[in-house]
Fold this protein.
Amino acid sequence: MTTDDIEDARVVQAAAFAGPDDPTDPTTFPPEVTARQHRRYRQLLAEDPAGCWVADDGDRAVGVALALLRDDLWGLSLLAVRPDLQAKGIGRRLLEASLTYAAGADRSVILSTSDPKAIACYAGAGFDLHPQVAARGKVRRTPPADPRVRAGGQDDLALADEVDRAVRRAARYGDQLVLAEMWSMYVVDDSTGRGYAYVRENGEVEAVAATSDEIATALLWRCLEHAVAKDVEASVEHMTREQQWAVRVAIEAGLSLRPSGPVFWRGDVPPASYLPSGPWL
């Protein structure tokens, strides 16, 4: 993939992930959405050029795969194929190309959609499937604010990387800056533990990582309070059986739980005090 492929890749991504009421032409997206998408592609092309691939029909990209490698953790950030060309082996070949970038990685992760074709592709590549649930809805109740949780920012990125090394065994490095530029950050850093979280302005929890479930719980509650303040529904994704603390928070907050696409792992699964980011893992 090169920077010249970004616009075609955005077209493929929009069409592949569009719901019944979603626009499929990315040129009509709000400017802030376009800017975030460009930021994501350019960050991964800069940091992980060997993990970024496209399939083309001789004229333009019809499929795209973005993979990242941070320390010993490989992750698939995006895999999309134009809908009319799916189930023809293009996605599988893109995955195989992106996995060449995983050589030497001790652990690998893919956050899958619920698309049966995607699930079969990842399972067929030798990854272990772990079921997930997600939660969404208006927050009906929150506990009193935890005074340990404060607003974070770029001065906290070194702390966040230290937490990631302890929790994920892999820092995010430059990805942390992208996350901090895009979303609201919350931090805990005291004698009881350390952790951070990002939440989108639309109420979607982007990521949580902490040195204990108790700290992760406090951070997740702060993200839900953020959704309340913005008067939007909250959304919590990527909860497996290891994230019971997050499931309990979602239930106590009055959110509705539903099955979601699975997560696939090779190697050790991270500790429980962790909710991954969809694009940044």
